[in-house]
Structure formats: structure tokens, C-alpha cells
Specification:
The complex is a heterodimer of chains A (about 300) and B (about 300). Chain A has about 300 residues and is mostly helical. Chain A is about 70% helix and about 0% strand. Chain A has helices at about 1-35, 50-55, 60-70, 70-105, 105-120, 125-135, 140-150, 165-190, 195-200, 205-220, 220-230, 240-245, 255, 260-270, 275-300. By secondary structure, chain B is mostly helical. Chain B has a domain at about 65-250: MetI-like (MetI-like fold, Orthogonal Bundle), CATH 1.10.3720. The chains are: A mainly alpha (about 300), B mainly alpha (about 300).
């Protein structure tokens, strides 16, 4: 009896805290949890009147429809290959720039470089697509009007020609995103005890030898954390990068269509909502599995680097 | 420190590379600005250029004179960004504060409730249907405010970790003895002591709202309801929209600096970011570092 009253008093004392949690919890319930339940739409023949939960089931019809088209292969291939390329390129460039920036002696220049490299990260992808358009516009872009003629080359129909887009997207993604990783690697390097480098210097170790034997091994934790986050999202793509930057140009779809652009285009096309939901479900389930798996592996190898 | 020849050569090499990198990051934005002040005919004839033959402020004058669509877009962006950032900070800290108190019963379950939203997501289709058919946010300001941007697990975890690690438990105990309730402790102690994390979270939320164009793409069809980013996106989709609009407002007689106007709107869209960045660079960098540390 007394125990019970004590518990009640304790809960009463915590009541304001629970009330504080409510607004946020309600928002997460609506914004995140209801759509999670709504994922069953992938197994339904959706119509607006019956809504997600009232519409009749149609088994795996949507998935069969999705996999019948050759789109499914293209979007999977593009999403995976671009992600692999993005991860490798941004990691290599990011580590290199981080090593360079840390080695700059002038602290003012160091700060300038660090600031400059992060700037594109803060700019909306729509504006990035305007900048890319200023470079690649067929009629008056900098490439076709100035650079290519100066090199004695013919103009290129950039937005109709798939040849260069893998490169353009990899470069654009690197330009926009590399600052993020660079900052993290800089933080990693600045945590290394300078004594290691002094000792290496005394032993006559060159710069490359120091990078290979001191810097890189110390960067393993941030590299693993970044890899882990990126592998968990390897079935996701930056919708803006693939939709905005190629200006939604139909003749480029073979090299620019990814899971996320497909989901949007299918959802907004007539009768496409089923296959759109099917693609979205595959993305969510595979993504979830990959996060758990990669975290499990990391926890086995070095538990300190696991996310959870 | 004695510098050898090799070290000097290395310093020269990395500085050259990094100056090159700095130019690569900054020059595209310079190109954007230069094309916005290029005279329209020069732009059409010579193309986009860093060194235009003829300058003109026509694009910016046009923006000031034909204000309706563009001013409205800025108004919407500013309104949504301000309300969104303020509400987001309030909701995030209100939720993070209780989660930071170790003795709160049910804390683990609540933490999981927050964390799980980072692992699994229902995706675009169910949330689109929910927001449009259940909450009817299409073509309202709520469409910019509510979906996805208002609050995220990530920021909750950042704030919670900051509360836990930076505010000593003794302060809470002392406050409780003085008769302060949890709400008072939250508002009078926890928040004022957490300014750095509040600035960082606020800055990234501000940026997310300012730069968001997807909510506009999904939920806004009414051209009177476009935000700046949604307007920029709409102009790509329909490059003719703006000239059609201006021919109504100016009787079609004025020569329309089309391309330069688009570039001018794009530049004004990033201008606030360029303006505050030098002063708040530290907080942007901080936010990224915090993100790399697991929550």
C-alpha cells in the first residue's frame, strides 16, 4: 500500500517531463510511424476513396509489375554503382585534402581553405543545378561557348548525351559533399599525438611513409563510422542530385534514374503508385537490413566504432 | 623549427593544390553572380562568362519592380524558415530534456522510439498519401513546415547528449531543493547552459528549411504559394513561366532579361548563406563534427 503510494507520487513528480515529451512524440508518430505502417500499400491496389488501409490487397502484383520493366535493373544498377563511386571518390579526396589542410603552416590560410571547402555543402541542390546549367547549357553555357571552342572541340549536347553524366554527377557530388568528410578527417588527424610524427621524423621517415604508417591507421575509426553510415544508405540516392542536376532530362534516364527518382516519377505518373510503393518498400527493407548487418559486423570487428 | 628544402617544397605544393581547390569551390558561385549582372543580350550572344562584355543590373531591378511572385516567394521562405526553426528548436529540446535525465522511468523505451525512426522509414508514397489525404496540407504553408523538416531523431540525440554531458547533475539537485519544477529547470537552467548546441541545431534547421525544395515539389501546385527554392525549381520545369508572367505585368513591351533574372533569383537564394557563413562558420563545422560522433 505504502509502496504503491510512493510509486504514484514518483510518477506524479515526473508528470511534467512526460508532458514535455508529448508534442515531439506525436510529431514522430505522425511523420514517421504512420508512414511505416502505410508501407503495406505496396501489397495493395490503392484507390483514393478507400485510403491506404481500406484498399483491397493484391498480393505481389505491384512487385511483378515493377520487375517486369527493365527500369528495375537500371535504377538498382545506377543507385548502387553511383553510391560506390561517391563513397570511394569522396573518401579519397576528403582524406587527401584533410592531410593537406592540416599540414598548412599558416593558420589563416588553413582556416580559409577549411571554410571554402565546406561552402558548397550549404547550398541547395536547386542552385547547384543552376550553376551546372550555366556550365553546360547547349546554347550559352561556359563549356560550349567558351571552353570547348578554345580547345578546338565541337559543342556537346550535354543534356541529351549520356556519355559524360557519370563523370558530371561524380564531380558535382564531390564538389558539393567532400567538405563534410574533410572536416571529419581533419578532426581525426588533429587528435593524433604529434609525438608519433616527431619520432618518425627522427627516424628519417618521409612524408608518404608517415601518412601510410601514422595518419591512415589513426583515421580508421572515422572512416569506419562514415562507411557504416553510407553502406546503410547504399540503396538510397540523393534525389536532388539525380533529379535536379540533369534537369529531369528524359534522354539521360539511362544513367540518371535511381530508386528515388523512380519512386517520385512513378508516384506522379498515372497508375504508377503501386510500383512506386513497391520500389519504396524494397528500398526501406534492404536499407534497414544493411544498417543492422553493417553495424553487427563492425561490432564484431571493433565494438568501439559501432553506432549502436 | 628548422625548415628543410623538402618541407618548403611540400608547403608550396599543398598550398598550390589548396588554392586550386578553393577556386574550384568559389568560382561556380562567382559565375552565378556574374551571369546575374550580365546584360541579357550579351548573355545570349556570348554565353555565361566570368568576364561579361556588358554589365546590367536589369535582373535585380526587374526583381524589385515585378515584385509579386518573387517577393511572395521570399516572404514564404522567410516566414516558413523562421517559424520552422523556432518550433523545431522548441520541440527538439522539450523532447531531449526529459530523455537526458537518467532516473526518468521509461527512458529506454522513449529513446528507442526516437532512435528507430533513423533506422526505418515508410518512404515517400505512404507519407505523401497521409499528408495530402488525411491532413490536406496541399497548397498550404503547412506543406513547407510539417513533412520531415520539423523535427528529427538526429537533433534530439544531439541535444540529449549535450544536456547529459554538459550540465552537472548537482545543478539540478540544487534547483530542486530550491523548489524549482522540471519546467523551470528546463527553461531557466538547461536551455541557457546549452547555447552552443542550440545555435548549431538551429543553424542546420534554418539551412534545411531555407534550402528545401522537395516539399514544394510534392505538395505545392498553386504558383502563388511557391517558396524561393520551389520557384527556382518551377522555373526549370517551365522556363517560360516567368516571361509569361512578366509580359502580363509590363504589357510585353519591355525586353525581359530572362536568363539573368533566373540567375539573380538563384543568387539571392544563396546570398543569406554567404552573408552569415563567415561569422557562423565555427557552428557549421561544429555541427558536422558532432554528427560524426555517435549519439
Amino acid at each position: 500500500m505504502r509502496e504503491g503510494r510512493k510509486n504514484a507520487a514518483k510518477l506524479w513528480q515526473y508528470l511534467p517531463l512526460y508532458l514535455m515529451v508529448i508534442p515531439g512524440a506525436v510529431y514522430l508518430f505522425i511523420n514517421n510511424y504512420i508512414p511505416m505502417a502505410g508501407i503495406v500499400i505496396a501489397f495493395k491496389k490503392y484507390n483514393v476513396n478507400d485510403g491506404i488501409f481500406g484498399s483491397p490487397w493484391n498480393g505481389t502484383e505491384n512487385f511483378r509489375y515493377l520487375f517486369q520493366s527493365k527500369d528495375s535493373f537500371i535504377i538498382l544498377r545506377n543507385t548502387l554503382l553511383y553510391n560506390v563511386a561517391f563513397i570511394l571518390v569522396n573518401m579519397a579526396v576528403g582524406i587527401l585534402l584533410a592531410i593537406f589542410i592540416t599540414d598548412v603552416l599558416s593558420s589563416r590560410l588553413k582556416k580559409l581553405y577549411q571554410s571554402a571547402i565546406l561552402l558548397p555543402f550549404l547550398i541547395s541542390i536547386v542552385v547547384v543545378s543552376y550553376i551546372v546549367f550555366a556550365l553546360l547549357s547547349h546554347e550559352n553555357g561556359l563549356m560550349n561557348k567558351t571552353i570547348l571552342p578554345a580547345l578546338g572541340q565541337k559543342p556537346i549536347q550535354w543534356y541529351n548525351d549520356t556519355t559524360w553524366w557519370p563523370l558530371i554527377l561524380i564531380l558535382t557530388n564531390c564538389w558539393k559533399g567532400v567538405g563534410y568528410g574533410t572536416l571529419i578527417y581533419i578532426a581525426g588527424i588533429s587528435g593524433i599525438d604529434p609525438g608519433y610524427y616527431e619520432a618518425a621524423e627522427l627516424d628519417g621517415a618521409g612524408k608518404w611513409c608517415q601518412i601510410k604508417n601514422i595518419t591512415l591507421p589513426h583515421l580508421v575509426p572515422p572512416i569506419v563510422t562514415m562507411l557504416l553510415m553510407q553502406i546503410g544508405r547504399i540503396f538510397y540516392s540523393d534525389f536532388g542530385l539525380f533529379y535536379q542536376v540533369p534537369q529531369n532530362s528524359g534522354s539521360l534516364f539511362a544513367v540518371t534514374n535511381t530508386v528515388d527518382t523512380y519512386v517520385y516519377r512513378a508516384m506522379t505518373s498515372a497508375g504508377g503508385i503501386g510500383r512506386s510503393a513497391a520500389a519504396g518498400l524494397i528500398q526501406a527493407v534492404v536499407g534497414f537490413t544493411l544498417v543492422l548487418l553493417s553495424n553487427l559486423i563492425v561490432r564484431k570487428v571493433s565494438s568501439a566504432n559501432a553506432i549502436f | 623549427m628548422i625548415r628543410t628544402k623538402g618541407q618548403t617544397a611540400y608547403q608550396t605544393m599543398i598550398n598550390i593544390v589548396l588554392i586550386g581547390v578553393t577556386l574550384i569551390t568559389v568560382l561556380p558561385m562567382v559565375l552565378l553572380f556574374m551571369s546575374s549582372i550580365t546584360e541579357e543580350n550579351t548573355l545570349v550572344v556570348n554565353g555565361y562568362s566570368f568576364f561579361p562584355e556588358k554589365f546590367s543590373l536589369g535582373a535585380y531591378r526587374y526583381i524589385l519592380q515585378n515584385a509579386s511572385t518573387i517577393f511572395r516567394a521570399y516572404g514564404i521562405t522567410i516566414l516558413v524558415t523562421v517559424i520552422g526553426t523556432a518550433l523545431s528548436l522548441l520541440l527538439t529540446t522539450l523532447m531531449a530534456f526529459p530523455l537526458s535525465l537518467k532516473d526518468l522511468p521509461g527512458r529506454r523505451a522513449l529513446n528507442f522510439y526516437v532512435f528507430f525512426t533513423m533506422l526505418f522509414s515508410g518512404g515517400l508514397v505512404p507519407s505523401y498519401i497521409m499528408w495530402t489525404n488525411t491532413f490536406h496540407i496541399k497548397n498550404t504553408l503547412l506543406a513547407y513546415l510539417l513533412p520531415n523538416l520539423l523535427m528529427g531523431a538526429f537533433n534530439i540525440i544531439l541535444a540529449r547528449t549535450f544536456f547529459t554531458t554538459n550540465i552537472p547533475n548537482d545543478i539540478y539537485e540544487a534547483a530542486k531543493i530550491d523548489g524549482a519544477g522540471y519546467l523551470t529547470i528546463y527553461a531557466k537552467i538547461a536551455l541557457p547552459l546549452s547555447k552552443p548546441i542550440l545555435v548549431t541545431i538551429g543553424l542546420f534547421t534554418w539551412l534545411a528549411y531555407w534550402n528545401d525544395w522537395t516539399n514544394g515539389l510534392y505538395y505545392i501546385s498553386d504558383s502563388g504559394m511557391l517558396s524561393v527554392q520551389a520557384l527556382l525549381n518551377r522555373m526549370i520545369q517551365d522556363i517560360q513561366a516567368l516571361s509569361a508572367h512578366s509580359s502580363i505585368s509590363s504589357g510585353g513591351a519591355m525586353q525581359i532579361p530572362q536568363v539573368s533574372i533566373r540567375m539573380a533569383i538563384a543568387f539571392v537564394a544563396i546570398f543569406p548563406i554567404l552573408l552569415i557563413y563567415p561569422f557562423l562558420q565555427k557552428y557549421f563545422a561544429n555541427g558536422i563534427m558532432l554528427g560524426a560522433v555517435k549519439g
